[in-house]
Amino acid sequence: MSGNTFGTLFTVTTFGESHGPAIGCVIDGCPPGMALSEADIQFDLDRRKPGTSRHVTQRQEPDTVEILSGVYEGKTTGTPIALLIRNQDQRSKDYSNIAESFRPGHADYTYWHKYGIRDPRGGGRSSARLTAPVVGAAAIAKKWLQQQYGTIFRGYMSQLGELVVPFEDWSHVTENPFFAANASMIPQLESYMDALRKSGDSCGARIEVVADNVPVGLGQPIYDKLDADIAYALMGINAVKGVEIGAGFASVAQKGTEHGDELTPEGFASNNAGGVLGGISTGQSITASIAIKPTSSIHTPRHSIDKAGNPIMVETHGRHDPCVGIRATPIAEAMLALVLMDHALRHRAQCGDVSVSTPKIRAQRP
Amino acid sequence: MSGNTFGTLFTVTTFGESHGPAIGCVIDGCPPGMALSEADIQFDLDRRKPGTSRHVTQRQEPDTVEILSGVYEGKTTGTPIALLIRNQDQRSKDYSNIAESFRPGHADYTYWHKYGIRDPRGGGRSSARLTAPVVGAAAIAKKWLQQQYGTIFRGYMSQLGELVVPFEDWSHVTENPFFAANASMIPQLESYMDALRKSGDSCGARIEVVADNVPVGLGQPIYDKLDADIAYALMGINAVKGVEIGAGFASVAQKGTEHGDELTPEGFASNNAGGVLGGISTGQSITASIAIKPTSSIHTPRHSIDKAGNPIMVETHGRHDPCVGIRATPIAEAMLALVLMDHALRHRAQCGDVSVSTPKIRAQRP
Amino acid sequence: MSGNTFGTLFTVTTFGESHGPAIGCVIDGCPPGMALSEADIQFDLDRRKPGTSRHVTQRQEPDTVEILSGVYEGKTTGTPIALLIRNQDQRSKDYSNIAESFRPGHADYTYWHKYGIRDPRGGGRSSARLTAPVVGAAAIAKKWLQQQYGTIFRGYMSQLGELVVPFEDWSHVTENPFFAANASMIPQLESYMDALRKSGDSCGARIEVVADNVPVGLGQPIYDKLDADIAYALMGINAVKGVEIGAGFASVAQKGTEHGDELTPEGFASNNAGGVLGGISTGQSITASIAIKPTSSIHTPRHSIDKAGNPIMVETHGRHDPCVGIRATPIAEAMLALVLMDHALRHRAQCGDVSVSTPKIRAQRP
Amino acid sequence: MSGNTFGTLFTVTTFGESHGPAIGCVIDGCPPGMALSEADIQFDLDRRKPGTSRHVTQRQEPDTVEILSGVYEGKTTGTPIALLIRNQDQRSKDYSNIAESFRPGHADYTYWHKYGIRDPRGGGRSSARLTAPVVGAAAIAKKWLQQQYGTIFRGYMSQLGELVVPFEDWSHVTENPFFAANASMIPQLESYMDALRKSGDSCGARIEVVADNVPVGLGQPIYDKLDADIAYALMGINAVKGVEIGAGFASVAQKGTEHGDELTPEGFASNNAGGVLGGISTGQSITASIAIKPTSSIHTPRHSIDKAGNPIMVETHGRHDPCVGIRATPIAEAMLALVLMDHALRHRAQCGDVSVSTPKIRAQRP
């Protein structure tokens, strides 16, 4: 496979480039009979779309979705659902000056070496714009999982550059452009971003994502473990360099007596596992963290080479997110939802309809 | 798919349980005409096998491999290669006392919920013993990649519980039972483990794994990115809770001017990328880190429940690794090798034979 | 998988229904760097499109294709190629009268039982209209195979209802609406179809399809044999009930001395094999035949039941092909091309670039 | 994929060569909790094994199966089931004289061209001996389908060379070595085979295979149609050159009024469909026919070439089936069972547990 299909039973095949005529996807395997309209999908697309604050790219894309197939009289038919989003705000000429050189930390170098051809317009296929179709597809998965098991997906930014953003309350997340679960730090985050932009530099971010009310038993050991597939899904998001499940890297220094979540008749007493044991969901909340690297397209000159291998200095202008992590929260939720959806179908293929036996949980993270 | 096959073009399908009659695998997609014998495979199996020091499980398994198919007159034929390892040192009775209860942090809870049935003998299918067949399969991948591109795989333990183990030199790794790249800390690591065992507890570990001489262009964006598949492979190893590529979580606090590896006519000037940009290999060394949680089977009593949901205290006896991370280095190398092998074949499917154009690298990690 | 993707390395994922807003597909795995434009694809779409003679459905669809992605400056980039065809001539109301009943021999019965929902508009997803996207995708495969190996694909109708249509010459095929390789029988075929339409009935057809200049070595035994995949591809075409490779059912009564194609230094002396031995291409021409059943939507009343299980009489009006086999020749060629394309990539994944060693052939069929 | 795995959710990965140390398979995706022992599997292996009459190869293989994994305390665990069959009666030296030449109609030519290497011992991987593991795997599928839906699989030989063998009664099939559903013709079939053997020649055969009590709704349009997958499975059996579903090639000359099976409140009135409409099972019996070519290894000299391309005469000695079709009936049943099993799991992945609504059938074939 050439890598443009996500999932095995609930599959999402995406297409498109940042500045081509359109982007979109084909979703195969959606159970029939679920009510579905464009509005169900547009909501999450709007959470991800560019141009919504001064801290993200100023490209203006309404990201209006059209359902081309798979829905009849307002219900899914069980056949492929195709989503189409026309690109509106292409500016290909922005990229002509960089078509012959490589940006440090950018995929332009590897695409050119792999394919012997390169679409320089906004990163072409490697652009983070291509997360829009999966966010659309995941909205369908989320709706089904919510109806079937009550599963819900949430996320927040827990660090922006050097600034740790402590979790205060879920209610804050929708009230600021950073997806921060913290109201008091917003002015500080805004100043940080304003200074960063002025300096012509970029920064990284850390995102936490959580799924609550996950049925026990999802995951296919021993290679398609639920956490392995989550790691695959999250590491595959543009610019991600690290993934943790539950206690993550902190578990290295934990003792067994500390790490293993004790069980009680009322549920698990803690959640170091992040909701997965042996690659199978426990019924605890699924918790994962990702590290997002700083954007590679920056206004500061850096050493590089051109296609002929000659040394050059390169700096990037045009419209770029100074921190791609700012818009990453809905994307991370989407990827997690797609993994759970796929595993829900895989589980019932082998074991029959999932009996919803979600153990009570005493302690969750955060 | 039910999750017991690793890879898409170079596939490894494993079978077996910790205390069943045998474990093994079927490898499909191996290029024909490569010299191969059991000795090629046994070497890596011996690096992984139990019972080689007092710091790991005392189960005695020679892990002798038999090639059942796919090799004729000492050469691979292009047809499936089946590997068989008979289990020798089963002690099923060790587990009868835990068959009705669940260990905190152990897969026994999730297997029972998923399948409605559970093999309590040494964890059954969820045992780390099942890493042996993939280590065997990866020996074949390593040999092919080495011959084709000169690619080599190495790894070491960089942290044991709270003890950070600084990298000194690769030569030390084979000289101690911890796979530490550091000679002077060995006495400290041995005392740490002796104290841990006495206390009836367990600890985690951190492992670094590196592939050198990787051709440019491997990886299939945008979902089967090389780093996404590495994350999938490494997170799928028993007890792993976190995966980093290159700078990993440190990249959150890096600036773009710091993170993006500059290019020069002599090669990359640094390796924050960990050898992957846009999901495609750059020709830099691939570098990854994993966090391994402490073993869940410990001699200390913990709160849990039995199958009926009643509260109980559970403690585990029998033979267990007090730190599964100690034997994890060859396993991590193996998983990385399987990912690169699969992507080498995927690349040449679409783009033809890989032209080995490995850019010179000035700075590598470590 | 839910069955809407064809192929494993060169994959075609289609979407759409007969009377929805659009049909199309996403092609993944196309090698980069090949010149490609809409004109390359339109040619084959025009050979398949409806309304081109009085013997086929009178639905007017220009089937104009738009390439949405995967091509930059006239060349394939190696990323997904999305094709979009807007439906133009929908008449959903034609189908309201049949929405509650089942046509003998039609998929409406099984779709309703499988999905619990049914799109009655022109057969919805089960319509032969959905062969358009694969014909489009196959045009890309044909171009690549032609450039790489000189492979060409041809087909013709060898039987229409009871009328056997002997092969005379390839040149005739493009000169009549039946794809008959025979000029003299055209008046007879036209009268036959005119009488059939008047009678309100339908008939079957037999199609032969041939690939010349196929490299030796394509096919992946022992399950993805080349002939097994051809059978899968051809039997999957709407209304096909039988598939033969080479001598087909005639081989039952052949002796071994008669069937096995002798080899000479100048090539094979005959082609009973149909170009495949042991599931791998021999370099002989690939030859296959298919049987197409008569259309199920006919103007003659037949016994059936409604959704409630009550007996009814059903007859179908609206626009239908009285013999779906008439337009099947380009579809069969397309499916054969997709199979060979997929296997060409699979072969080079495992065995490296195909060395084009096509043995000389003395005798071909027809 | 390299073609050695059958199925998508219920997968069978086979390994082994005709004269290697062992053959076997790994079955993944079997639902947990089903009682299973070696005896369940041995029954079908014994129906297929060689040496049971003078009309088949005299190789003596008990084909004793060992279950290596996936069963605990007599029940399937949901983890991979590995089956091992040791080869007992290898005679590699029989083949030394043919290692440098190619038999007309044999896979030795294509294997050598594809892989650049060839195992001449009894056809190596291309041997019909490799049908044993799938017959074993299918025994598990049959048991599950029988318990779940009451589905049963049967087959018979309907033609041997030129001799048509009319169906009389299922009871005869087990009473003769030909799987003929006809008692009176047995002496004629025995004389035919005796004469054939004496002449040093071989012949083809035609096999019919039927599945009764198939639930409605199995099949994944539009590419993994149930009949497409059946065609793939049956054409993939060694020596098969043609596949028909239901009326097959006879449907070419049928009218729509004749072919389409009318529905009545009591069930379908006929079965031209062979149990599949639009790629989805109807609840009618699934009926399929296959054409098997004559064995290529014969005692009669034929024109061929050696590896260097020089003309030679080749004739084969050693132990060969003079009609591979004689043992093909249990193999065809097995392949059909594997297809239905896979689709049963695929269906419930997307649509939930199959509601067993098998419409009553008035007319079945034969």
Automatic annotation (TrEMBL), chains A, B, C, D:
EC number: 4.2.3.5
Cofactor dependency: FMNH2
GO BP term (any one): chorismate biosynthetic process
GO cellular component term of the entry, any: cytosol
CDD domains: Chorismate_synthase
Listed pathway(s): Metabolic intermediate biosynthesis; chorismate biosynthesis; chorismate from D-erythrose 4-phosphate and phosphoenolpyruvate: step 7/7
Residues where NADP(+) binds: 48, 54
Keywords linked to the UniProt accession: Amino-acid biosynthesis, Aromatic amino acid biosynthesis, FAD, Flavoprotein, FMN, Lyase, NADP
Annotated catalysed reactions: 5-O-(1-carboxyvinyl)-3-phosphoshikimate = chorismate + phosphate
Cofactor note text: Reduced FMN (FMNH(2)).
Alphabetized PROSITE patterns for the sequence: CHORISMATE_SYNTHASE_1, CHORISMATE_SYNTHASE_2, CHORISMATE_SYNTHASE_3
Lyase is among the record's keywords: yes
Annotated FMN binding sites: 125-127, 238-239, 278, 293-297, 319
Entry GO MF terms: chorismate synthase activity; FMN binding
Top-level taxon of origin: Bacteria
Subunit and interaction comment: Homotetramer.
Family of the protein in this entry: Belongs to the chorismate synthase family.
Protein's job: This reaction introduces a second double bond into the aromatic ring system.
Official protein name in the record: Chorismate synthase
Lineage summary: Bacteria, Pseudomonadati, Pseudomonadota, Betaproteobacteria, Burkholderiales
